[in-house]
Amino acid sequence: MGKTILVVADVRHQALRQVTYELLGAANQLANGGAVHVVVLGHQVEVPELGAHGADVVWQVDDEALAHYTPASYRKAFLHIYQSVSPQVVLFAHSAIGKDLAPMVAMRLGLGQISDVIHLDASGEKPTFTRPIYAGKALTKVAPKSEPYVLTLRPNNLPPYTGEQKTAQVQNVDITFETPDLITMVQEVIHKATGGVDLTEAKIIVSGGRGVKSAEGFQPLQELADVLGAAVGASRGACDAGYCDYALQIGQTGKVVTPDLYIACGISGAIQHLAGMSNSKVIVAINKDPEAPIFQIADYGIVGDLFEVVPLLTKAFKQALTS
């Protein structure tokens, strides 16, 4: 029997992030022929035709109060749509907004939650969800005890919808926000430059550690990233040393990433850093120390000076991509 699934679109800079389409792919697996609803919260968000991406109903809540994320306003808007849909499963991205909003509404509604899902299996009587535990050193499979329940899905892990194109019904919803709903107000948002490619959704990441030695040491990494269309990341050690901004930090206390290719340059491989990138599909490590822990999880290892190796890689990739 089909289920009703509610997807909360992940919005950044008035556009849907790639993880939204991954959420719709997961929702269609869980729906098993049922209806997939998606709610878009924001102000003047560019919403494409989501029927092509697996949505049956699109709920759009457009209000200036939702232009920037605030817990109270987003919670009110979400709960309004939730009562209208009455879904069996609610899907959020395991992003900055999703990690804040999902447990908040789960608590308010008295629902169970499974966080940071990286794989789902909907073939059995009950779906099972795989999530990392112990800082990514182990994986566990979890099944929901009852419905409805809430899920947060890690970006760049599940495939987007690839089924037949649907014709999505669009519902524009007006919600009145009053002073009690706006206990937090955003006056200004200052964006830090991080290279243009979102780390959490990047397919390729070139990351630097203390081995880059200085802020200027990131320049060869940036040149390689530009050739590959990659994002630049960093270990906590590099951030603590002042070589780069903390917005680039990957690890247990930074961003968790799962790219197709992760190139670690001058990173020793501390447990804190491995927790944020060990699930990358292919890991290449470049380090002068042949005993560095990063080599234990790397698919390919290069023992050498990153300032010699990285420019050679940049030159080789540039030739390969332009030939």
UniProtKB/TrEMBL annotation:
InterPro entries: DHS-like_NAD/FAD-binding_dom, ETF_a/b_N, ETF_a/FixB, ETF_alpha_N, ETF_asu_C, ETF_asu_C_CS, Rossmann-like_a/b/a_fold. CDD domains: ETF_alpha. Pfam families: ETF, ETF_alpha. Keywords: Electron transport, FAD, Flavoprotein, Transport. The keyword Transport applies. The keyword Transport applies. PROSITE patterns: ETF_ALPHA (PS00696). Residues 5-189 form the Electron transfer flavoprotein alpha/beta-subunit N-terminal domain. It comes from the Bacteria. Belongs to the ETF alpha-subunit/FixB family. This is Electron transfer flavoprotein subunit alpha/FixB family protein.
